[in-house]
Amino acid sequence: MAVRPLPKIVIPGDDPVQIAGSPHLDRLSEYGEVVLHPDRPETDEEKIRRVLDAVVLINSRGAVKWPGHVLRQLPSLRFMTVCGIGTDPVDLQVAREMGIVVSNIPGKTASVVAEHAFCLMCAAAKRAAYQTAELKAGRWTRQENISLAGKTLGVVGVGPIGSQMVSLGKAVGMHVIAWTFHPSEERAERIGVEFVELDELLQTSDVVSIHVKLTDESRQMIGKRELALMKHGSLLVNTARGAIIDTNALIDSLGSGRLSGAALDVFETEPLPSDHRLLDCEQIVLTPHAADQTPEGCNLLNEGVVDNVVAFFEGRPQNVVT
pLDDT tens, 212-240? Predict the structure, then answer.
């Protein structure tokens, strides 16, 4: 009697390394054959070739995109899980049409990402990147830093990460206000924050920290108009998605001196091109989409995607986005 082959579970491009070598992968051996590609697929044709026979796809890197025309050429695919919260690499409408279940990992690394956002805020306020560069260049440049205690932190989006950011801001003596697509008195009381309109938040905050997911509603929600509303000398922090901010408008605001600084972990184009205008901005702190990239954070994400795959094979899909 022929042995039925195990379904194929494909990780199409684990670059930089996220899940390769994780002991959590061993849990999948009884459910399917795991095929991990360490390098990133450079073309749609290569993506299709790697995943053509896969039943399950683990998208360990958000830089690997899955537009509709690619998904339509993957007839065996039944389940995808991203390695984080954001599902923007996947055309969810086409996935729905194809009957492909898509899951994410909501909230698992919220404290890790919020800590990174908080540290970016501190680095921007204390001019850490600028003053380091000046010292390396042999210049003893004096410039006033920004005190955070007593200042107003405006948190845009109060999901698990934004809620943690509220707590961290309060811990250093900041007055914290917030905006969300879905305000309610119950949420405000539970999180311990006052909800205000977005324009009011921008006009009154000394620091604005972005924590909304990327959707059609949030894309470019912080543009030229919104940046012009921000207080003169304020700071902008973004650890959500690069496309939430109009990057060119941000660069202009930094160049004009309206904003005192910015701290970004995410960009409209990733990896960030070496000739990007952001790199010419003096008062800016940049990290390469690394907010959850600590040993603890990576382990939590790897555990989460494997949990999602196991749940799917056991007929109880979890964290389903579509």
Answer: 999 999 999 999 999 999 999 999 999 99
Same structural domain for residues 50 and 118? no
Asked whether residue 152 carries a pLDDT value surpassing 60, the answer given is: yes
Q: Does residue 27 have an active-site annotation?
A: no
Number of domains in the chain: 2
How many angstroms from the chain centroid is the CA of residue 184? Answer: 25
Give the lowest-confidence range in 4-8, 37-41, 268-272, 273-277.
Answer: 4-8
Query: Residue 268's CB: how many other CB atoms inside 10 A?
Result: 16
**C-alpha triplet 301, 117, 292: angle, nearest 5°:** 15
CATH number at residue 145: 3.40.50.720
The pTM is what?
0.93
In the residue annotation, 289 being an active-site residue is answered as yes
Indicate if 241 belongs to the active site: yes
Question: Which one is catalytic: 61, 116, 127, 289?
Answer: 289
pLDDT tens string 245-273? 999 999 999 999 999 999 999 999 999 99
What is the extent of the structural domain holding 260? 110-286
- Selecting among 258, 270, 277, 303, the annotated active-site residue is 270
Cβ within 8 Å of residue 118, ≥6 positions away: 165, 168, 169
d(CA 276, CA 274): 6
